[in-house]
Amino acid sequence: MKSPVRVAITGAAGQISYSLLFRIAAGEMLGPDQPVILQMLEITPALGALKGVAMELDDCAFPLLAGMVCTDDANVAFKDADYALLVGARPRGPGMERKDLLEANAAIFSAQGKAINDNASKDIKVLVVGNPANTNALIAQRNAPDIDPRQFTAMTRLDHNRAMTQLAQKTDKTINDVKNLVIWGNHSSTQYPDIHHTTVDGTDAMSLIDQAWYENDFIPTVQQRGAAIIDARGASSAASAANAAIFHMRDWALGSAEGDWVSMGVYSDGSYGIEKGLIYSFPCVCKDGDWSIVQGVELNEFSTGKMKATEEELQQERDAVSHLLP
Ligand code: NAX
């Protein structure tokens, strides 16, 4: 058996974590031979609820669960952490403007970025789930100058999975038949789900659907899926978000499937003309514990327009908190 790795999870008493923690402890994220120590961070008023979650984790008797830490101190939660899933965030309250939301989260994610910088393993892999995920990841990254910016990522895998299922259902196939789909840009309603390079059971996806369905049905359905879940369930996506977080980290750590792409919000190196330094979702492949942006994807005018619009939103989000960025 390998020696245990430390996995920090913030917002650990929240609804996404209630699904996420149990699957990590069951070995679904890092493999069936990798013991884990869960280092769970919450705000002080939620420590009681977190204790209950830890009791349930105990009661699962997971063979791979090598230890647990419950804390409201970020320096403790990120101590020697090899992985971090930043799930906890400030939700939008009544009357709160988008700018207020960005600022409230900037305060949280700058403090957590510093705590990661000061305490975590220098090889830590960070996934930001809490919204606005891309900009929160940017803020954490900018506050962690001693850590390679490539180690901070944001989650667009849920959007990727949603898009795969919409396309599989439309074409009467299964998600196993869908390959090389991309979510470009921000995890928000400006994201661009692109199927121009996607195949379904080996056939070019665009030849199986018409442009009107693509533009007027598929793209808005994927972009608005989070809101549709809230309408139907009365609460935001939780198990599916946890599942996407597991897939993102699993692929990053253990490698993505041969011949396919995954969507990850990653540090832009300027690929496809996207401003360097933004955390932007690109088509990626993962190998040997590292990700790379798939190069050479051909783009038509429709795609470049959509990619630019979501880039502009990310620039605006960054500019709204620029006074808080080091
Ligand atoms: P919950 O409100 O159920 O849980 C969030 C938890 O975070 C709470 O227990 C809260 O006490 C804790 N928290 C708040 N501030 C904290 C801090 N500074 N340090 C540590 N813990 C803190 O929300 P949940 O449904 O679990 O969603 C969590 C986040 O994921 C939200 O920001 C949500 O918008 C975001 N999502 C992101 C998705 C994505 O695809 N990137 C999809 C699902 C989800 O909407």
Q: Would you mind describing this structure in some detail?
A:
The protein is an alpha/beta fold and 326 residues long. It is 41% helix and 19% strand. The strands form four sheets. A six-stranded parallel sheet has the order 3-2-1-4-5-6. Strands 7-10-11 form a three-stranded antiparallel sheet. Helix 4 links the parallel strand 4 (83-86) and strand 5 (125-128). Helix 1 packs across helix 9, helix 4 (98-119) packs across helix 5 (133-142) and helix 6 packs antiparallel against helix 7 (211-223). The relative contact order is 0.13. The mean pLDDT is 96. Ligand NAX is lined by residues 10-11, 13-17, 41-43, 46, 87-91, 108, 129-131, 133, 155, 158, 187, 226, 236-238, 241.
Task: Reconstruct the topology from this structure.
Layout: E1 5-10, H1 15-25, E2 36-41, H2 47-60, E3 65-71, H3 74-77, E4 83-86, H4 98-119, E5 125-128, H5 133-142, E6 152-154, H6 157-170, E7 178-179, E8 182-184, E9 192-194, E10 199-200, E11 203-204, H7 211-223, H8 225-233, H9 239-254, E12 262-267, E13 279-287, E14 290-293, H10 301-320
Parallel strand pairs: 1-2, 1-4, 2-3, 4-5, 5-6
Antiparallel strand pairs: 7-10, 8-9, 10-11, 12-13, 13-14
Helix pairs in contact: 1-9, 4-5, 6-7
This protein binds ligand NAX.
Binding site for substrate: 92, 98, 131, 162
Active site: 187 (proton acceptor)
Organism: Sessilibacter corallicola
List keywords for this structure.
326 residues, alpha/beta, six-stranded parallel β-sheet, three-stranded antiparallel β-sheet, 41% helix, globular, binds ligand NAX, Malate dehydrogenase, EC 1.1.1.37, oxidoreductase, tricarboxylic acid cycle, Lactate/malate_DH_N
